[in-house]
Amino acid sequence: MIRNAFAYVTRKRLKSLIILLVILSMSTLSLIGLSIKDATNRAANKTFGSITNSFTMEINRQVNPGTPRGSGNIRGEDIKKIVDSGHIDNYIKRIGAVADLVDHDIIRTQEITNSEDPDRAEKFKRTTMMTGVNDSSKETKFVSGAFKLVEGKHLAKDDKNKILMHKALAEKNNLKVGDKIKIKSNVYDADNEKQANETIEVEIKGLFDGHNNGGVSAATELYENTLIGDVHTAAKLYGNTEQTAVYQDATFFVKGNKNLDKVMKDLGKLNINWNQYNLVKSSSNYPALQQSISGIYSIANKLFGGSLIFAGLVVSLLLFLWMNARKKEIAVLLSLGISKVRIFGQFAFELLFVAVPAFVASYFVAGIMGKAIGNNVLHRVTGGIASQIAKESASSGLGGGAEVDGFNKTLTSLDVMVNPKAFVYVVLFMTVILGVSLLIATSKILRKRPKELLIDTK
């Protein structure tokens, strides 16, 4: 039986080659589909890994407009109530502030210089945007990948009078990690309601890098003109302490044995004016990223499922034509007393001899083509999202900056690799489909008697 199957496959080379190419193509596409999903999972886990099982407290803009400049105005005492609830393992709180450099210059582009109002340019000629945070490694702009620490260390909760500075801003002013500079309050800042005029000496603890994805309308929107400071420093710029300051938002990391949804529901019972605030899962702060992941998943699923369905249909048709041309051969075998099970077994081995080389080849072909197809899918999905974001930004008049770019972040690359687990899945699924296709193609013929097969000319 095995010898006959091998002899038939090698004798009918063209027919065997056609089926081999179909199986190879469909197995390759299925394997690429699974590999793209795996690469997307790894990219998503890398991005969301530091915010898993966490939620963010932010203002409810429907009833709470926030500070005069539109930043958050969450009370420190409300943050403390959540921290003390017993559900929280760790938390990040952020203050949005404005800081002027003393005796140092910010980075400006010619385009901004030409378009900026002269009065504003004079009032904010050395102004940077500062985010005060108690742990910069989990700050939104670093989590999203908009910023990346390239030198020094992140800010920790016990730091005071420490900042992280953009690498380009440090180079412009001949500064390095460990240097000390002075920053001061800006009395023209709308959020400086106390008209504080504080001057603070801070130490550069680290340098970060990152560049704007889109256009900006003001120098303060440039990544290069952003400082990350400790909470104490940011609060002092507005004449506040860590306790009296208002916060832009706060992110809470739930204890490992707690259910995130249940914790968020239970916190609604705390004595906090929830009409002013919203609690949202932290992953929801990256809608464009989630949309890009969902879009890639959708295409990968269609690629995998479509390949299996197409393989089933095409192989069934080819096998049906193959079996139809072998009626006389089957009739002779039945006349010689060879059982239908044995005949079916020969056909199965014939298909196996064709499928095995196709499966092996698909592993290597998918490895070669996977990255190209994966990047094509990525660019197709993210390109559509980018166009949508551009239209929405144009219609709403949104500016630029790291916060906006982080909100609009999508996946930027996929490291598509074919892993053995995906290969096993594809082989199993394809084997089942080939087996079903063979049953469909042979069932009608094997039910007939030898005489019926010999006189059947259809």
From TrEMBL:
Biological classification of the source: Bacteria, Bacillati, Bacillota, Clostridia, Peptostreptococcales
Q: Which residues form a coiled coil?
A: none
Q: Name one GO cellular component term.
A: plasma membrane protein complex
Location of the protein in the cell: Cell membrane
Q: Which UniProt keywords apply?
A: Cell membrane, Membrane, Transmembrane, Transmembrane helix
Give the transmembrane region(s): 16-36, 303-322, 343-366, 422-441
Question: In which family does this protein belong, per the annotation?
Answer: Belongs to the ABC-4 integral membrane protein family. LolC/E subfamily.
Identification of the protein by name = ABC transporter permease
Mind listing the GO biological process terms from this record?
lipoprotein localization to outer membrane
